[in-house]
Amino acid sequence: MIYALLDKESLLKRGLSLAKLSQKIQFLDIPIAQYRNKTGFLEEKREDLLLIRKFYKGKLIVNDTIELIDYADGLHVGQDDIRIYDSNLDKAVKIIREKIGKKLLGLSTHNREEILESNELDLDYIGLGAYRGTETKSEAKVLGKEALELAKLSKHPVGLIGGVKLSDVFDKQIAYSVIGSDLYEN
């Protein structure tokens, strides 16, 4: 299943429209999308979520910005971002769950240890990567085929991220092919 990544910074660098990409993912009938904007102000992010909603009817996940959960169907957090709530991950997830209720909750993972930790948490899915190198996150460790083996350790559905292409086909251990740049270019 395709999980679209709408990364505001990547779109701006390429001179692409958030509205047009939102229309494209709706046309492609992509069931889930994540809006990520690491540098924008809260009001800009809120306006972007409302713009996406004009064109896209699937599940919309907001990255890190729990303050905007009312405009989304779920929240995705990274390893550093979850620890803002509490250094104990179980407590951190409970705090987040108090704010988002039954909405979707995803957590980024990058290795065996993080996957095993995530297995003990009340999550709906994990993101795992990077599968391939990307311009977006040049500092990310590329896992390659090791990611496919690591995915088997997760009790949660796995979204494989990082250089994933529309043409990639994975076994059942990968629930979501998280695609960003390849959507922008095709």
Report on this structure.
This protein is α/β, with parallel strands linked by helices. It has a single domain (2-185), classed as Aldolase class I (TIM Barrel). It has 8 helices and 8 strands. It has helices at 8-14, 18-27, 42-55, 79-82, 89-100, 112-118, 146-151, 181-185; strands spanning 2-7, 32-36, 59-63, 74-77, 104-109, 125-129, 158-161, 176-179. The chain has an 8-stranded parallel β-barrel, surrounded by 4 helices. The radius of gyration is 15 Å and the shape is globular. It starts with a strand and ends with a helix. The model has no long low-confidence stretch (mean pLDDT 95).
Q: What would the keywords be for this entry?
A:
186 residues; alpha/beta; TIM Barrel; 8 helices; 35% helix
Please outline the helices and strands.
Layout: E1 2-7, H1 8-14, H2 18-27, E2 32-36, H3 42-55, E3 59-63, E4 74-77, H4 79-82, H5 89-100, E5 104-109, H6 112-118, E6 125-129, H7 146-151, E7 158-161, E8 176-179, H8 181-185
Parallel strand pairs: 1-2, 1-8, 2-3, 3-4, 4-5, 5-6, 6-7, 7-8
Helix pairs in contact: 2-3
Q: Under the CATH scheme, which class? A: Alpha Beta
Residue share in β-strands? 15-25%
Helix/strand/pairing category: alpha/beta
Tell me the CATH topology: TIM Barrel
User: Helix content range of the residues, please?
Assistant: 25-40%
Task: State mean pLDDT (0 to 100 scale).
Answer: 95
Number of strands: 8
The H-level CATH homologous superfamily, spelled out, is Aldolase class I
- How many domains? 1
Summarize the structure.
The chain has 186 residues and is an alpha/beta fold. It contains eight helices and eight strands. Helix 7 links the parallel strand 6 and strand 7.
